[in-house]
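Need a sequence for this fold. Nothing fancy.
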């Protein structure tokens, strides 16, 4: 607060100072010289500073603010890019933002027939990419055509590996955030993320974290809805597996859980009703869990997968960080390394999703090794790519037709597929100006 006494003080102070200055000509001349000198110095400094570039210290690559503006990718640009990329080949456009390319390449003078689908959800935000099973139960099989038609799909390709006798997928599978099966041998998979009209992908080794909890203990579960590989594993089976659980491991038990309550313990297979769980493990683990009566299952995605809507696993890698990377030994897939019909998927840095089938085992097309397939996926621009189940399973459906040379013209019945459809009634879709 400024009070009247303070005002009087400053008035008196400056009044005395000014009267001394005006009345003393010598002091006045001295002060004028000082003022003039000060003005000259200021002018010189100003001229010096103007000779320097503006923002000389701040306008550097490290400090300039960068604005990332997502350009609009039109259907016309997409079509032109595809036509320019695949010159002298057969190119069709089954729907907006989707291209189908048929071509023949030669390796060591041997012909290889190739089908490629490239699609971009920035061009067509109604496109949805997701895995599908042959039926509501995992122990089922169906042809790619039937799976595609059931989902009203525009594009479909056979998916991950499966057990031929039963159809149960051998590897990770999650659809609409529901985990159906767990990974094996730490194999690679693709996670699909959706947010409004934006679809993104992540290819990585798949891991799920599963535990059974009671009031007294936590038990780590090794896998979900997968055939037993080791007698020491603790496995979880849900009603998605089928109508009955597998037999318990030797000297082990199955424990039926219904409504989080331990209901029944048996060494034999146990019938499964909707929402039932069965934990299959060694005798000591099962007896200990059963004593606590109430059991809760907790399943989480690993950090690298959080937020994913869909996951499908297979392997091995073909391209990683834009470089050929074929890890058959680590993923225990040496047996499939010869020249065979192939199925593969990948994606480019700009978000374009790529689906490929390679015809093989015929005079007109000899197939590819995994290394040859990896080189091809890199050549067409994949930042990441992975192998799907191949051989007689390999089949590609494009708008009502099987377009590759599949076995029996339809391909064999398979466990699961990756489908692409257009969801024009998708209530979550939000069209942005930069698509």
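Here you go.
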């Amino acid at each position: 607060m400024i009070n009247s006494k303070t005002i009087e003080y400053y008035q008196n102070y400056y009044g005395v100072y000014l009267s001394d200055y005006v009345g003393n000509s010598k002091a006045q001349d001295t002060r004028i010289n000082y003022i003039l000198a000060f003005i000259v110095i200021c002018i010189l400094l100003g001229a010096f500073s103007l000779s320097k570039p503006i923002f000389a210290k701040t306008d550097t690559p490290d400090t300039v603010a960068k604005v990332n503006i997502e350009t609009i990718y039109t259907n016309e640009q997409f079509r032109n890019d595809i036509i320019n990329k695949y010159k002298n080949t057969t190119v069709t456009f089954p729907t907006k933002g989707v291209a189908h390319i048929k071509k023949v390449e030669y390796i060591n003078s041997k012909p290889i027939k190739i089908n490629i689908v490239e699609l971009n959800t920035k061009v067509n935000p109604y496109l949805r990419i997701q895995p599908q099973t042959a039926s509501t139960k995992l122990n089922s099989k169906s042809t790619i055509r039937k799976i595609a038609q059931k989902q009203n799909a525009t594009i479909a390709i056979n998916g991950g590996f499966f057990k031929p006798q039963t159809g149960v997928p051998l590897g990770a599978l999650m659809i609409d955030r529901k985990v159906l099966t767990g990974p094996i041998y730490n194999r690679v998979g693709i996670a699909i993320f959706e947010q409004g009209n934006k679809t993104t992908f992540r290819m990585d080794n798949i891991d799920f974290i599963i535990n059974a909890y009671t009031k007294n203990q936590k038990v780590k579960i090794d896998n979900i809805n997968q055939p037993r590989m080791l007698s020491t594993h603790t496995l979880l089976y849900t009603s998605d597996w089928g109508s009955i659980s597998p037999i318990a491991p030797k000297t082990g038990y199955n424990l039926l859980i219904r409504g989080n309550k331990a209901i029944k313990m048996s060494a034999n297979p146990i019938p499964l009703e909707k929402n039932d769980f069965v934990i299959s493990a060694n005798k000591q683990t099962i007896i200990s869990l059963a004593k606590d009566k109430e059991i809760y299952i907790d399943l989480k995605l690993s950090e690298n997968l959080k937020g994913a809507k869909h996951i499908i696993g297979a392997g091995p890698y073909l391209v990683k960080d834009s470089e050929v990377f074929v890890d058959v030994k680590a993923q225990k897939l040496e047996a499939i390394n010869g020249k065979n019909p192939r199925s593969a998927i990948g994606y480019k840095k700009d978000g374009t999703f790529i689906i490929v089938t390679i015809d093989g085992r015929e005079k007109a097309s000899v197939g590819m090794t995994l290394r040859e397939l990896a080189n091809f996926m890199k050549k067409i621009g994949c930042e990441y790519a992975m192998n799907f189940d191949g051989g007689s399973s390999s089949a590609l459906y494009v708008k009502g037709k099987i377009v590759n040379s599949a076995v029996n013209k339809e391909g064999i019945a398979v466990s699961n597929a990756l489908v692409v459809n257009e969801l024009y009634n998708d209530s979550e879709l939000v069209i942005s100006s930069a698509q």
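For context: The first helix runs from residue 4 to 23.
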